[in-house]
Amino acid sequence: MANDGDRTSGGGPVSSGRRDERALYVISVAAELAGVHPQTLRIYERKGLVEPQRTVGRSRRYSDRDIHRLQRIQELTTEGVSLAGVKRIIALEEEIDCARDEIGRLHGEIAELRREADQAVADVHRQYRRDLVPLSKAVIRFGPR
Fold this sequence. Notes:
The protein has 145 residues and is mainly alpha-helical. It is built from four helices and three strands. 56% of the residues lie in helices and 6% in strands.
């Protein structure tokens, strides 16, 4: 999750642009907020369920997003889901979130393309009006002379 470019010097917490991703909490505070023992957080990290950011001194730092993830893990394990199942469920939930974001982006793109198409059609219709030459009134006889 964190890369070396995100770390601060002096062992301070890692900070990224989004507020929910700023690594603020040490392991004891994160454990208390998530309602688990600190050792449980270490187990979750070893199992790949959570990946806390690290300071230059290698101390774990948890973000609000990590805390919400830990709370979700607790909900699922309380319901009897195994850690492997929790990992899969969370991965699928993240895929769904990504798909929803992509769908929203595509809806916006479709709306923009529709506006462009409507404008192009309107431009063509305006051009037709300029290109049409009015017909003079003429008397046309039908039938025998």
